[in-house]
Amino acid sequence: FVDHLYAALEQQGIQTYKDDETLPRGESIRPALLKAIQESRIAVVVFSENYADSSWCLDELAHIIECVDTRGQIVIPIFYYVEPSDVRKLKRKYEEAFSKHETEKKENVESWRKTLEKAGSISGWAINGTINCDEAKCIKEIVSTISSSLPTLSRNVNKDLIGIETRLQDLKSKLEIESGGVRFIGIWGVGGGGKTTLASAAYAEISHRFKGHCLLENIREESRKHGLTKLQEKFLSLVLKTKDVMVGSEIEGRS
Prior knowledge:
The chain contains 14 helices and 3 strands. The protein is mainly alpha-helical. It has a 3-stranded parallel beta sheet. Helix 10 crosses helix 11 and helix 12 crosses helix 13. The two termini are 35 Å apart. This is TIR-NBS-LRR resistance protein RES8. It comes from Helianthus annuus (Common sunflower). Pfam families: NB-ARC, TIR.
């Protein structure tokens, strides 16, 4: 489940930290994980049946909850075949796990207990195999929620540009994204008039809604330097999310 969720987040262009995917070789795990938690806007916690068995997971969760209090971090809990009340009140497998911790990690038990109580009280997703809970659908909803919680590039980069919002809304209406068809939009004007800025703002605003997307800049200059095939390879690599695209000719690239 976590692998599918990670892939969906990456496909959406959301920078996602997962230790076995992004941890550089030779780097100490604990400092890297703590740093990743501190620098993240959102923490997704997947509570599985055996989650509480791991003191490592409980330490991570404690740090996440600390970041909620000190940094305003958002936590999205996913209760994967466990009830939120099991997590909150330490029932069933969670109770069994804490019985073991009482003898092995007694000094941490009380803080872990408070951490789970707080995390289990946060509204999240319950995935339990019922007919109304399709995992693929849940992952799509989770990714959508996370995406909408993150600031878009256009809001960050172009917020001080006078008139950009009006022009952006006009361009988006011409794109007719919900129509289901294919549209080509040309932006014409004098040099320095803001064409690239507007196109980039539109891309930043809507690209997350597509499975594949790519922004190619300076096409004339780049094609003169490296040829169209290099641009075709770059385009296909970004859209298909693979590094192994080889284009033999411009005709092959177009097809």
